[in-house]
Amino acid sequence: MTIPKTLGALKQFPSADPALRTRTVRSELRENLIERLRTKQPLFPGVHGYDDTVMPQLANAILSRHHFILLGLRGQAKSRILRALASLLDDQIPVVEGSEVNDNPFAPISKFARERLAEAGDDTPIAWVGRDARYIEKLATPDVTIADLIGDVDPIKAARGGHLLADELTMHYGMLPRANRGIFALNELPDLAAKVQVGLFNVMQEGDVQIKGYAVRLPLDVLLAFTANPEDYTARGKIITPLKDRIGSEIHTHYPESVETGMTITRQEAWVDRGNIPVRVPELIAEVVERVAFEARGDSRVDKRSGVSQRMPITLLENVTSNAERRALSHGESAAVPRLSDLYGALTAITGKVELEYEGELVGADTIARELIRRAADAAFRDRAGEPNTDRIVIHFDSGTALRVGDDAPSAALREGFATVDGLLELVGECGLAAPGDIPGEVAACELVLEALVARRKISRSDGGVYGRATRKRAIDE
Length: 478
Description:
It is built from 25 helices and 14 strands. The protein has helices at 7-11, 18-21, 25-38, 54-63, 78-84, 111-120, 146-149, 155-161, 175-178, 194-198, 201-205, 230-234, 241-246, 259-269, 283-298, 311-331, 341-344, 348-351, 358-363, 365-385, 391-398, 411-419, 424-430, 439-455, 472-477, and strands spanning 68-71, 92-96, 126-130, 135-139, 151-153, 171-173, 182-187, 209-210, 217-218, 222-228, 249-252, 403-404, 459-461, 466-469. It is of the alpha/beta class.
């Protein structure tokens, strides 16, 4: 079917049904969501861990045709959810060609569109706008002005067109009017200056805006969606109360509630398929990487107000993979297989993603990062192996034997070294931590066992990667 290019042709088009001609964007989102729910499609594919918490609340907000806000710490997929809202819009909608505010041909709001329709009638040219162009996102910063969001008088337009400054045709529209018949998303709402927040009042309640004090009224049709940090949102002076009162639904996001969900997100987002060399990430390494974030979120020395972003395990896995890739290329190995020592080679992916309390600053980010790795390894070991007998391994190191494990050493060489540790490879096999004959997998599993013992203070590990007997201090603590 040919897409209409004029108003006359549009009137004969199926989508020009009278019920659709004046349908608001929030009604459009509601109807498309209803269809998605009826057909049992995922609300937003690619967003994991929110099926029983965030998604029902979000669906309720859309069904209620509410403006809403997502409250959560950094790295909780708030922006991803907002961008996914565009998938609930129609594929495309008709607008008056040349309109800056996506004027509905059947209900124009700008003077430009009204005059063009009056002059051309059914010959008025029609353009079509896709769903992606109907989503506009802005990061709120203190320097954002009313002119940025709402608009301003453009003296140059007035001079060139011979218009009075009060004429609507002299207006330069801001981002909000340009989002008409679409979604306007504002990230970090509390960072918006109070006087600019005031400018959102009429849009949310009365559905219109005024520009530069002139009697220009634009009854905008727009869904407003915000994000904010919970602490900033509730602090005095961060968001003005009348604006908060006009937000229909307040939806709280959260970090993954299970390691498995976190691993799914990290696996989806991390870039590990490098192309130049095959990469195989053992499941136990992927689990340790994820557990580092879980351990950090539960550590009293890490600032809970800042949180530990889900980007931390994502970047950590990418750095771990890069360390394995570099090693494989330098030794001519056929595949890059990350192991636990690679996490120590990627400490900056941890230290750069956590904000520390005063107690943590005294200890140091690097020290805390190493502790998080060991605790994560211990948790993964318990999860996969339970509580096996490790006495033979501990006795081996208590006898004074030391073993250096470098992140640059080839897997075959490390496997030979681990074979000298009494009971280590046998334990790996008994617990099913690695498949027999899988040398890189066995090496990764052996390191997991040793790191778990370090976390339990049964053996020690130096910063240089040397495993040995527990220090006197640790032995006393034990």
